Amino acid sequence: MDKSRNITVDIERNRVRIVVSHGEDEEIVKLSIAEAQELLTKVGDAIEDYEQRKQVRID
Fold it and tell me: Which of 14, 21, 39, 48 is the most exposed place for a label (fewest CB within 10 A)?
């Protein structure tokens, strides 16, 4: 991971707040709990897919 990038996740009332800092820029995303759960599932699926593709040997 790029050392100038930082990701923080916090709970604000009934929202999940994700802050991605990169260099001097900062992106803030606020998600409902349902949206955060959907994001978690999609990220998990993408990582699992990546891990499986790494195992496929291309000759």
Answer: 14
